[in-house]
Each structure stands twice: as C-alpha cells, then as structure tokens.
Amino acid sequence: MRFLRTGSMPTLAPVDDDSSGDELMTNAAPASNIRNTNHFSSCVGLSEMCPSDDESSESVVVGASPPHRRATALPPHLGHKKVLVTGGAGFVGSSVAMHLLARGDSVVIVDEMNDYYDVRIKENNLRRVRDMCPVDDPGRLVIYRGDICDEEFMLSLFEAERPRWVCHMAARAGVRPSIQDPYIYIHSNIRGTTHLMELSHKFGVENFVFASSSSVYGGSKSTFFSEDECVDNPVSPYAASKKACELLAYTYHHLYRLNVTGLRFFTVYGPRGRPDMAPFKFIDRVSRGLELQQFGDGSSSRDYTYIDDIVDGIVRAIDRPYPYQVFNLGKGSGNSLSEFISIVEKHVGREAIVKVLPDQPGDVPYTCADVSKAYDLLGYSATVPFDEGIRRTVRWYEDEYVKNICIEPETQANGMGRAASFAEIGSVSSIMPWINF
Ligand SMILES: NC(=O)c1ccc[n+]([C@@H]2O[C@H](COP(=O)([O-])OP(=O)(O)OC[C@H]3O[C@@H](n4cnc5c(N)ncnc54)[C@H](O)[C@@H]3O)[C@@H](O)[C@H]2O)c1
C-alpha cells in the first residue's frame, strides 16, 4: 500500500499498488489480527499495534523487522469532524486548528493562555485562527479559556461540545524551565493529559492524538532516533512528563480501548514559532544586530521540522485512529549549527555576530528522527527543506511579527519565572466560550 502525497486533506486515500517491488508493508492482515508483541519489552506500550483479548499471547509474527512493518496502514477517516484542539492558542495548536478549519472541520479550542511567553503572541494566533473560520458559518469555531486540569470546567466543555476527536497539544513546553519549576509540568502535562483521557474514554472519543516530544530520547546514546528505542532515561522533568504521558496513554488504551497516538515532534519552527526556541531567537537576534551564542565549533547538527510538515503529520494521525501508536515526526535529516546561522544570515540579509563558546556538557554531535514508521503507517514525509522553511519564517517575522506584534525578546522569551500557579489558572476557567480577543 502506498500513499498519495496529497497532503492531509480529507481526499487523501491510500492506493494499492501491487506492481510496486519495494512495498513497505509486508503483511496485509487486518490490524485487528495483530497480537501484542514483545519486541520492545523494555519499552512498555510501543509494540502494541492492536489489543489482544488474550493478554498472555505472544506475537503472531516474529522477526527482525519492527512491528509496524507488519501492520496494515489504516485508511483515513474521511468526512467532517469536530475536533477538540487543546493548546489551540499556542504555536502548533493554532496551526492545526487553522488547517482543520480550512479543510471544513469544526474546531473547539481550549487554552489557559498562560504567560510562558507573551500572551499577545497567543492572542494574535487566535485571531489568525478566527480569520480562518468562514463568516457565514461561525459555529465551526468555539474558543474556551481555561485549564485542562479544571475538572468542572472540562466536564462542562465535553458535555456542551461532545467532541469525537481530540488533538491534545496543550502542555508546558521547554526543557530548562521544567528544571526550575517541575510542578507546573506535572500539572499541565501529566495531570492534564490524564484528565483529558478520562473524559475522552467516558465521552466515546474516536481518536486521541497528543504531542509527545523528541526530548524523551534525551538519555539515549544513539543519534538516529527510532521509536523502537528504549526511552527510560529522560533527563529533564519536561521529558519525563512526556514519557509519562506515553505510558498513561498506553494504560487508557489498554483499559478502555481508547485509540491513542503520541507524536514525538522534533524541533518545530516556522511562522508564529515559539519565541523561546532557537529558530525564532536566531532570526530575531540577527535581524536586530544582537549577538548569537554558538556552543562548540558549529558542526553539531539537529533535526528541525517546518510547521506545515508537523501539521500534516498531526492531521494524518487524527484521521487514522490506531489503537495505540507512537510516531516520530521530524524532517528526517539534520542541519549543522553553522549551516543554520548562514541560512538565517542569507534570508535576513545581515551578518550574524557570533560568540563562540565551548561545547555544553552533554551535547551530542548529531541527532535526527527516523521517520520511517510515520511514513509506513501515516504516509507522512516532510517536504519543506530547511532553507525554504527559514526563508518563509523570516518573511513572516518581517511582514507580521515586526509590524503587528514586536515584543522585546529579552523580557519575553525566557519562559521562566512568569508562569501563573495552577491555583490562579483554575480561577480563570469559564464554560462560556471566550471571545475577548
Ligand atoms: N514546538 C516544538 O518544537 C515542540 C517540540 C516537541 C514537542 N512539542 C509539544 O507540542 C505541543 C505544542 O507545543 P507548542 O510549541 O505549540 O507550545 P506552546 O507553548 O506554543 O503551546 C502550548 C499551549 O498550551 C497551553 N497550555 C499549557 N498548559 C495548559 C493547561 N493546563 N490548560 C490549558 N492550556 C494549557 C498554553 O497556554 C499554550 O498556548 C506541546 O505539547 C509541546 O510539548 C513542541
């Protein structure tokens, strides 16, 4: 089975091509025939393609190839959906919401609008989402402001909206701030995700897709990260919270047969990107003539993924309700730090002032996503080269950010010390749709 590269619009359909000699799927058995395997016995949950009635049963097929190679890719669910997008005022959530509205779906957003970074950026994101909603059909978008951990609020939201599809992007993001304030990460990421899965199974949600992170690979010694790897050594509270979400997701799938997919994003960048992340910071600092810090000789390399590719992967996952899966979503190739800086210089049209500092302890020379599983089961592959992605991001920075938002980076992009406590967050929850932007 191969996928047409038609993007993640509802028209997407897998096509059979029996003449193809390089078929990636080696087993055409329906997913429901595939039993639990123990290929990843040290990584609970990553192996199960489909629930088995008999918990003691071994895999039907054993061999060196990873389980997903034996699985059948699901055809996408077509037609209209009402999707609950949590974190819909954030970078990724707002981008998914815009895509869903553009293709005709209905979207319910919930976001607490915390000040991890400047709230004006999130308000601007919501305005962009609202602009995507057709004026003659305003009911296709509802926005709520509130904490996903607020039980009363979220129960009322589910009762009022009855979403059948959940795209859970809300989280406290960022590695270093999680070391400063781990509790808020436990709250939003672990408790919040658990709460949403409780509601999702009670309200019969068809598919629960949530954002995990490449940071779960933090303690790994390898440089080409595959979902097969054991990720039992997270090196920050943020990474641990995402790994915990993956584990809890397996539990909800196991107990209630909730269809759950976790997506490990690799450094997402693009228009409206988070101001605490390197792609935004580099463009911002080079544009303003401020100094950049380069750790090491510039040869270290990372996998940067353009937002449109991530949105495409997320929507492909929403459309395919696998029983339980975890996928890497990355570009699948790395870019060195010095290449990164010179691409930014080219598109900004200004030379960077670079301060070279010694390698940071623990830095690894090359990290990159293995995206073959997402290709096999979702038909996902990134299409935007890094140079083109940075070009588009610089255009957005100059045409929209500088003109309409323009916040001083040094006070807004720290992501630390500005977080409201969850007690305060609870008090802003409101079951009334939030339209004050
Ligand atoms: N951007 C990346 O490079 C990247 C990489 C890996 C994983 N992720 C994950 O992707 C998801 C989206 O990331 P992003 O870059 O858009 O981050 P973001 O900070 O821009 O968006 C997250 C949104 O969630 C909201 N939120 C947080 N806690 C909440 C709560 N308790 N209740 C309601 N809303 C809450 C925030 O207000 C924010 O608007 C996150 O789960 C993040 O961990 C992102």
Automatic annotation (TrEMBL):
Residues 1-25 are annotated as: Disordered. Belongs to the NAD(P)-dependent epimerase/dehydratase family. Coiled coil: none annotated. The keyword NAD applies. Keywords: NAD. SUPFAM superfamilies: NAD(P)-binding Rossmann-fold domains. PANTHER family: EPIMERASE-RELATED. Residues 84-393 form the NAD(P)-binding domain. Gene3D superfamilies: NAD(P)-binding Rossmann-like Domain, UDP-galactose 4-epimerase, domain 1. It holds the Pfam family GDP_Man_Dehyd. It comes from Stephanodiscus triporus. This is NAD(P)-binding domain-containing protein. The keyword Lyase does not apply.
